[in-house]
């Protein structure tokens, strides 16, 4: 997967944080026998948790950034960066109750 393409990077930047959020659910809430739909309802009803969960999901992009930076695939890296910035903007908007 060494495709050097902005759209591919953007797609990775959107999908990988979602996977990170799912792993957060697996390690934090699944041991308490909370289903994924209950987790989504919990997040929806407690909107103060959304920026925190987004931030934890963005931690999953660190290995992705390192991988593409070390291989000098800069177009893909730009797409990943744009997706991360979109997630960051959404997190800030939720943090200050603008969404």
Keywords:
99 residues; mainly alpha; 5 helices; 0% strand
What is the overall silhouette?
A: globular
- What's the structural domain tally? 1
Terminal residue distance: 36 Å
Q: What Rg do the Cα atoms give? A: 15 Å
Kindly name the structural category.
mainly alpha
Helix-strand sequence = HHHHH
Range of strand content: under 5%
Q: How many strands in all?
A: 0
Largest β-sheet summary: none
Q: Share of helix among residues?
A: over 70%
Mean pLDDT: 94
- Poorly predicted runs are none
Number of distinct helices: 5
Structural summary, described in words:
The chain is mainly α. The model has no long low-confidence stretch (mean pLDDT 94). The longest helix is centred in the N-terminal third of the chain and has 23 residues, at 6-28. The chain is globular, with a radius of gyration of 15 Å. It has one domain (6-95). 17% of the residues are buried. It is built from 5 helices and no strands.
